Predict the 3D structure of the following.
Amino acid sequence: MPTLRQIEIFVKLAEIGNMGEAATTLGLTQPALSQQLRSLEERLELRLFERVPRGMQLTPSGRELLVQARAVLSSARNFRDAADQLAARPAGAIRFGVTPTLGPYLMPRVIKILHKRYPDLRLFIREGIPVLQQAELAAGELDMLLSPTPIDGKGLHIEPLFREPLRIIVPPDDPLLGIRSLQRKDFAGRTFLTLDHRHHYHRQLASICEDLGATILADYEGTSLDALQQMVGSGVGLALLPQLYVSSEAGGLDVVRIAEPAGWQTHRSIAAAWRTSAAYADLYAEVADVIAGEGRR
C-alpha cells in the first residue's frame, strides 16, 4: 500500500506542477521526491505524471486519483485531531488560509484578540488563491479558510461572517471627480485593472464592469491591492478596493480618490470554512466569530 508521505507528495506535486518547488515545500531533496514518486507509481502500476515544458502534468490516471488522495490526507488529519482531543490535548496550532486581498488588512486585529483569549494558540497563516486553498482545506492541508464567497467543496462547513463594501478608485486628477452627481453611465467605456483571474475579485469585477459598461484591461493582472492602487494613481485605469484595505494603515488612499455613482452599494461577502468532520470544529467556530466581529466593526 502507498504510504501517507507518498500520497502527500503526489498531491503537492499535482498542485505545484514543479518537482523542485514541490520538494522544497515538503522539506525534501528533489532526488528524494523523485524516488518516492517512482516507488508510488510502481506500487500502483500506474503513471501519475508526465513531463511537459512547464514542469509536471497529471496523466488521466493521476487526475482520477487526485480527489481520493486528498480525501485520504483529510481523513488522516481528522484522525490525528480526534486522537488529540480524546487525549485532552488542545489544538496548539491552526493552519489558516486567507486571500491576500483580505488577510493583511483584517488579521492583525484578529490575532491580537485571539492571542489574549487563547495564549497558547498559534495561527500559521498562508495567503493564496482561494480556489486552490479550498482544495487544500478539503485535503486536510489547511484547517480553516477565510475567503470571499462562494466557497465550494464537499464536506465543508461554510460560516457567513460579514459583507465588505467595494470602493471605486480613480486617479487624483480624473475627470469623474469633477462631476457633481456621478451616474453609472459616466463609467461607460472606462478601463478597470484586475488581479489574477483565479481570484473571486476578478470574477466580481467582470460582472461590475458589465453593469457599468466598462471593460477590464486585458493585458495586465495585478499581484496585490497595493499594485492596483499604484497603477491607478499613475493614470493607467480605475480599480476596486475593498473597504478594509481603504481603512487600514497598510492600504489607504494616498495616491487615489474614491468616485462612485449615485446609489453605489456594491460589496463582497466574506465567509470562513472548515471541514464538517474536524475534531476542533467548535474552536474554529469561535475563531470565526472573532473574525466576524472585527469585520463588522
